[in-house]
Amino acid sequence: MFAWWGRAMVRARWFVLVGGLLLAVVGGVWGTGVFGAVKGGGFDDPGSESSRARERIAAEVGQRPADILVIWSSSTATVDDPAFRTAVTGALAAARQRAEVAGAVSYYDTGMPAFVSTDRHAVYGVVTLTEFRNPDMFEAVRPALVVPAGSGLTTQFGGPASVVSEVSGQVGKDIARAETFSMPILVVLLFVVFGSFVAAGAPPLVGGLAILGAFTATRLFTQVTDVSVFALNVITLIGMGMAIDYSLFVVSRFREELAAGRDTAAAVVRTVETAGRTVVVSGMTVALALAGLLLFPQMFLRSMGFGGMAAVLVAMAAAITVLPALLAVLGPRINAIRIPVPWRRSARGAGGATGIGGVGGTGGTAWARLARGVMRRPGLVLAGTVAVLAILAVPFGRAEFGVADERVLPAGAASRVTSERLTADFPQVEVAPVRVLVSGTDQAGAADFAQRIAGVEGVTGAAVTGTRGESSVITVDYRGRVTGDTAKAVVAGIRALPPPAGAEVLVGGATAELTDLLNSLGDRLPWMALLVAVSTFVLLFLAFGSVVLPFKAILMNVVSIGASFGAVVWAFQDGHLAGPLGFTSTGDLEATQLILMLAILFGLSTDYEVFLLSRVREEWDRTGDNTAAVAGGLQRTGGIITAAALLLVIVIGGFASGQILFIKMIGFGMIVALIVDATIVRALLVPATMRLLGRANWWLPRPLAGLYRRFGIREEVADSSPAPVEAPGATEPGEPQEPREPREQVAV
After folding, report:
1. pLDDT in tens, 109-125
2. Are residues 412 and 419 in contact, defined by beta-carbon separation less than 8 angstroms?
3. Structural domain tally of the chain?
4. What are phi and psi of 561, to 5 degrees?
């Protein structure tokens, strides 16, 4: 199939290139409209008890959680000054005229001292919107809440809707900043890696198509469902990252085939047969890893799944359509405009340009020597690498999980400054009480239940704060942090109480939302793991004709991800890198971000595993010698994987330098995982384990061998390796030579 596809790309090369250009135009003109169609928030489970409590309290009692917190203050006047009062009440009256506003109150409406600062030079107001945390509504209402400049008062905004709005705006700035930071460095490194200006243009071309195509697909998604603004970060990151990986692999293989003496058409066909097949397997495994995010009810995670899958699949499609068509047009001119890099090596016998690590040629003999060195003492290397990775993973054992709040913004952000001032100047403000809906009983029954709640350990106060008909709201205060153990125990204790006779009780509030979020993620995480593991196992089995290699690949991914998660806990939860990276440690980790990291990192790790094993399989088919196959596979892909990881680190580094805490955390975790994966895992752990397993790497039960022959993702092509790997036996003097096996998998 892949040979046929390669020939089709050669024949239809101009039509394919025109089609790619049209996709880019549509993406640039219409697809980029996705920036105005995405939404903020989406971290909660809409079907959870806390979400239902929030909605029913609003519907049945008329109380809504605060969306906007506004502080009006003066350096000279006090809240008792008539002019102060007139300015504030006028702003609130103007806001109440807006259709987006469900309610607005302040000290002048309630007379409650909690609304007044300790120095009496400031008051705050609470505004609720008709849609919870809607940032667009906040921006529409905001001008009405700003007091006139001549009043002598200043206006500050905070609250959930303000935070979401500010975060959404910062995301767009961070994307532009990331591109400004990373693209010049990326371009220079591409030139150095490829050793040619023309070849270096392939990744940006495929990356641009991947990003614009994914923007177009995601805008289509917004027509039928809500999509989080953060999906745009993932699209840009994954789209460019996969484009770099796939372009490196395809272009380097094409140059290798040219170096073997093939003409342009034959080189393209052979490239699609081999590297194209690898790209398809990789793209499918990465997309399926991201598909696990679709199992979660949180809009944030589903959006990341949609956006990431779109970016991967478009990058994969471009790498096996537009890129082969372009190679068919360029031919040997892919090596044009060579760059004089002193340490660059020429492809052996090819005369083609090649960059770091032999990208574009057959070089990389250092990688073969490294593989042989590892395989001489595989047990020692395995023990050492596992010990290092275990040490890196240890901090994850003390991970604590919280929810995103204003601290995800940088220290000087307006919403964060407002929140900090509320805490400092308004000590009576209860930021996040537990809110309990009691429905189906009168106020007396609700009051009796409030007294029972007051007896729950950790509760410092419980009172009925609103009643309408047979529905009442009980506000519960507690000691400690919103995400602390005491608050969680209070929620659990209230939920364990028997409800009043004939009544229904729903527990809400920030702590209940966190509890429900963790339960929701925990319930679906095993299903995500099962989906990702099974789909990865099946795809790698069909690609490599082994049941051992897929299992080993999954295990290697888990090891790599564990090390990354441990580093994230050390850096962000413990705050050891708060100064260098410019963030405020919250003492916990936002749980949805780790789920997202799990999906992305598993996909990227599998991507590199596929790159390596595809060449190892080719060498196994050619030689039947497991040791030679591993050495040859690492020789031909070590430089490519290292270059791909380096380039992707630059792309991710641009995003990790952004201002949003959890985007920074994801970027840091990915960089750690890439470094670990491309060095310790692929260069040391994989060769060591494959040497210890020997022929068992290729073990396949006889029934599955027939299934692989029938449905395997492979090409029946003649042996045509462009050049022998260094030291075909891949053994040192005195090292035992493994027996040569036939090209078919080992079946029993």
Report:
1. 888 888 999 999 999 99
2. no
3. 2
4. -65, -40
Q: Are 689 and 554 in contact (CB under 8 A)?
A: no
CA-CA distances (angstroms) from residue 418 to 154, 155, 221, 571?
A: 12, 10, 35, 27
In residues, how long is the chain?
748
* 655 and 537 together in one domain: yes
DSSP letters, 441-452, are: S-HHHHHHHHHH
**Structure-token pair, residue 540:** 């790698």
**Cα separation of 195 and 374, whole Å?**
30
Together in a domain, 154 and 184 = no
Q: What is the pTM of this model?
A: 0.83
User: From CA 332, how far away is CA 264, in angstroms rounded?
Assistant: 7
Strand, coil or helix: 72? strand
**Which amino acid, residue 737?**
Q
How many Å separate Cα 744 from the centre of its chain?
Answer: 39
In whole angstroms, give the CA distance from residue 437 to residue 65: 13
557 close to 535: Cβ distance less than 8 angstroms: no
- pLDDT (tens digit, 9 = 90+) per residue, 489-530? 999 999 999 999 999 999 999 899 989 999 999 999 999 999
Amino acid in the structure at residue 225 = T
3-state class (DSSP) for residue 625? coil
Residues 239 and 328 in one domain: yes
Candidates 395, 400, 574, 571; CA nearest to 487 is 400
Domain with 543, as residue range(s), is: 2-36+165-402+516-711
Distance in angstroms (rounded) separating the CA atoms of residues 39 and 174: 17
Distance of alpha carbon 171 from the chain centroid: 14
Would you state the structure tokens that stand for residue 354, as one six-digit string? Answer: 């090649």
Number of H helices, E strands in the chain: 27, 12
3-state secondary structure of 153: coil
d(CA 731, CA 740): 13
Q: What is the pLDDT of residues 292-348, one digit of tens each?
A: 999 999 998 999 999 999 999 999 999 999 999 999 999 999 988 887 655 454 444
